[in-house]
Amino acid sequence: MNREETAAKIAALIAPFNKKDVTISDATTFAGDLEFDSLTVMDFVAEIEDAFDIIISMNAQAEIETYGQLVDAVVKMQG
After folding, report:
1. What architecture is the 3-20+28-78 domain classified under in CATH?
2. pTM (predicted TM-score)
3. Exposed / middle / buried, residue 71 (Cβ in 10 Å: 0-12, 13-18, 19+)
């Protein structure tokens, strides 16, 4: 799956969590723009892991602050 396909799939997964209907871009932050709290992050990460059949380590999660970083990380994890 290329970056564009991965980005589209992640955008679809974000939709139910995007309570403020924020426009998603590579620069969109999870904590600031989307106002994800720790529980929301855990639920969202579980959705990503299930959808892409990957595991995102706690260290990797700590480094991912934006949508663009998440897309790049998922693309890389898919190999």
Report:
1. Orthogonal Bundle (1.10)
2. 0.93
3. buried
